[in-house]
Amino acid sequence: MKLWSGRFDKNTDKLVDELNASITFDKRFYKEDITGSIAHATMLGRQGIIAQAEADKIIEALKGIMADMEAGKIPFNIEDEDIHMCVEAELTRRIGDTGKRLHTARSRNDQVAVDFRMYMKKEVLEIRAMILSLIEVLVNMAEKHTGTIMPAYTHLQRAQPSTFAHYMMAYANMLKRDVLRLEDAYDRMDENPLGCGALCGTTHPIDRAYTAELLGFARVCENSLDGVSDRDYVIEILSALATLMMHLSRFSEEIILWCSWEFKFIELDDAYSTGSSIMPQKKNPDIAELVRGKSGRVYGSLMGFLTIMKGLPLAYNKDMQEDKEQVFDAIDTVKACLPVFTAMVDTMTVNADNMYKAASRGFINATDCADYMVKKGMPFREAYTVVGRLVNHCISIDKTLEQLTLEEFKTFSEIFEADVFEAISLRTGVEMRLSQGGPSKASVDAQIASIKAFLESKAE
């Protein structure tokens, strides 16, 4: 018999039970549900809403249920409908009518809201720690490669000289923002909805601040209607996870390109590569490809839940039961990807010679040549035109700018002197980019120091 069956003359249809039940997936809330119930019972006893002896008996029984669930001794049956009813039914079986007092001054609406927030807080902290580990790997990689010159690209065309360290710090900064987004969402969801009741609170003299303290919330939800129907935090976290996966997907795309024979900038460790069933020479970047593909899965969770929420009036609606599977899948996907991705990056081999060879072609020092002329007094637009003609000439005779003679330079402008060759060298092109955020060693060292300080602040 359903715990809510008093109003009804007949049982629900079996197909309705199967559609309505959430126990198959919300069972992962069992720790949060029991922890929230213990806090609620503690508050009920403290406030004199139920006898202290009854509160103590409920709390002791709930602790026993927690231990048995952790040991796998309690089955999760569809007849129980959801984890809340499962726990309450088991509590009543163990201690009889005293167990029926637990739900005083509480609804499943505020119960699921508090369970969900507690669960999300825990998961956000775990994902945050994983991202910080990946950032640390990128910092370590950058420190080893501040002098490893490579071409930077726009439109996937070689553009200007950079370093592998500069690239690694670009992704470190993306991931830093991912951490901050999750922390911002964490702060906004750190509110206790327990005590909001079904939607309009309760007539019992509860102490919501006390349950917030017991459950580790920073504050209480200030409006009961909002408290039970708010899922902004779910959307914010899904959005943050989708953005994180977008960053990992972009990085994966770079890795897939870089380890191809056309680039050969890196080589992935055998432990993070796969082969072909028919082509013995193949070494495939399947992990990077899977991460790239799974980004779409997380996007789907975000878009799916936004669509669910867009037309819901206040307060709780059963549509909102669909939030959990969306979030569970997104969280599970991110947590599956991050550790493997981190290990893949940590173990990959950097082919510095191939990076330098690629940087030597494609005229990525053309801007440096134009800047050289500007420093000699020529307006930039005029210098741009001269260097464009120079590049066109080099292409026609299959030479690079560095391979031209001074006499050849002077046929395009008398402004060129012997010092042009130093100005257009790749090493100069990198090291003279001293502007904040650039690829010079001094600039990248400052970026590394900044990210290290960020990591240290998160370790406190």
What's the assembly state of these chains? Answer: single chain
Please give the radius of gyration in angstroms.
30 Å
Helical amount: 55-70%
Q: What is the helix/strand order? A: HHHHHHEEHEHEHHEHHEHHHHHHH
The dominant shape is elongated
CATH architecture of the largest domain: Up-down Bundle
What does this entry look like structurally?
The protein has helices spanning 14-20, 23-26, 30-46, 52-70, 83-95, 108-144, 164-189, 208-215, 224-229, 232-258, 286-309, 323-347, 352-360, 366-375, 380-397, 406-410, 420-423, 426-431, 441-459; strands spanning 149-154, 157-163, 191-192, 219-220, 266-267, 349-350. A two-stranded antiparallel ribbon has the order 1-2. Strands 3-4 form a two-stranded parallel sheet. With 460 residues, the protein is mainly alpha-helical. The chain folds into 3 domains: 8-104, Fumarase C, Chain B, domain 1 (Orthogonal Bundle); 109-145 and 154-202 and 228-357, Fumarase/aspartase (Central domain) (Fumarase C, Chain A, domain 2, Up-down Bundle); 361-446, Fumarase/aspartase (C-terminal domain) (Ribonucleotide Reductase Protein R1, domain 1). 62% of the residues lie in helices and 5% in strands.
